[in-house]
Specification:
The protein is mainly α and about 120 residues long. It contains seven helices and no strands.
Length: about 120
C-alpha cells in the first residue's frame, strides 16, 4: 500500500493550538525540587520521575506530537512498517504511541469515527 499523509481537521487544529498555549517553560531543577518537596511533605525523593512526567505532559500538548500520533495510526491501519523519519523527538514519540496503540485506540472510537477514518485513510 502507498503511504497517505494525515490531514488534521479544522477542529483538531483549533484544539491543538489551544493546548499549545498551555505549554509553560520548564523550571530549573532547583525550582522543580522545591515544588516537589512542597507537595510531598518536604521529601525530594522521586522529583526526577516527576520532572519526566512533566516533560511528557508538555510534549503531548504540541502539534508535532499530535501529527505523529495520527500519522502512526494511519500507517498502522494501512499495514505499513514502523518508521521514524524525523529527527524530532516529540513527533517520534507521538508516532510510536499512535502506531503501537492503534488497535487499542481504535476499539475506543465510535462507529462514525471509525468509518470516517477508514474512508479517508484505509479504503482506496
Amino acid at each position: 500500500m502507498d503511504r497517505k499523509m494525515y490531514q488534521p481537521t479544522a477542529r483538531q487544529e483549533r484544539n491543538w493550538a489551544r493546548e499549545a498555549s498551555r505549554i509553560v517553560e520548564m523550571p530549573s531543577d532547583e525550582e522543580f525540587k522545591d515544588r516537589w518537596a512542597k507537595y510531598h511533605h518536604g521529601k525530594v525523593n522521586g522529583w526526577g520521575m516527576g520532572k519526566r512526567d512533566w516533560v511528557l505532559s508538555n510534549m503531548t500538548r504540541t502539534r508535532e506530537y499530535q501529527m505523529g500520533l495520527w500519522q502512526g495510526r494511519v500507517d498502522a491501519a494501512r499495514g505499513l512498517d514502523y518508521s521514524e523519519e524525523r529527527d524530532e523527538n516529540t513527533y517520534n514519540l507521538g508516532y510510536q504511541r499512535g502506531y503501537l496503540d492503534y488497535d487499542s485506540n481504535r476499539r475506543g472510537w465510535d462507529r462514525a469515527t471509525r468509518e470516517r477514518f477508514d474512508a479517508a485513510y484505509v479504503n482506496d
